[in-house]
Amino acid sequence: MTTKMHSTLEHYFASTNKHDVAGMIADLTDDAVVKDEGREHRGVAAIREWMKETIQKYKFKAEPTSVARENDQTAVSVTISGDFPGSPIALTYWFKLEGQKIARMEIS
User: Fold this and answer.
1) Nearest to 107, CA basis, from 11, 57, 35, 39
2) CA-CA distance, 46 to 49, in Å (whole number)?
3) What's the Cα-to-Cα distance from 70 to each of 6, 43, 81, 88, rounded to whole Å?
4) Can you give the C-alpha Rg of the chain in angstroms?
5) Which of 32, 58, 77, 83 could form an S-S bond across to 28 if both were Cys, CB 3.0 to 4.6 Å?
6) pLDDT tens digits for 3-62?
7) Is the pTM of this model over 0.85?
8) Residue 99 DSSP SS3
9) Is the CA virtual torsion 46, 24, 57, 61 positive or negative?
């Protein structure tokens, strides 16, 4: 990887690959925002439901392949494999951290 991944992001991806929603939620600020598939999810309760729905729908695994810092954000290139046409695919997760927590995540 280009840059060392922040420990919060390492924990987020480890929890993601275990489909451990509680572990994924633990890395978020209370008012976090997630943008994915054209939808925006605000706050822990809404993000928890999005996580459960996405895991159930795609049964995916996420393999980070590179990390880069850009201004106040971290871009993590990820190979996603799961139950969907075209698997695996390459996506970029854009994170904005506040302290040790994820305040914003956008998947594109």
Assistant:
1) 35
2) 5
3) 14, 24, 26, 26
4) 13
5) 32
6) 789 999 999 999 999 999 999 999 999 999 999 999 999 999 999 999 999 999 999 999
7) yes
8) coil
9) positive
| Nearest to 105, CA basis, from 4, 2, 16 | 16
- Cβ pair 30, 45 in contact under 8 A: no
| CA-to-CA dists, residue 46 to 3, 16, 50, 82, angstroms | 31, 17, 6, 23
Residue 93 in tokens = 């997760």
Task: Give the per-residue pLDDT at 3.
Answer: 72
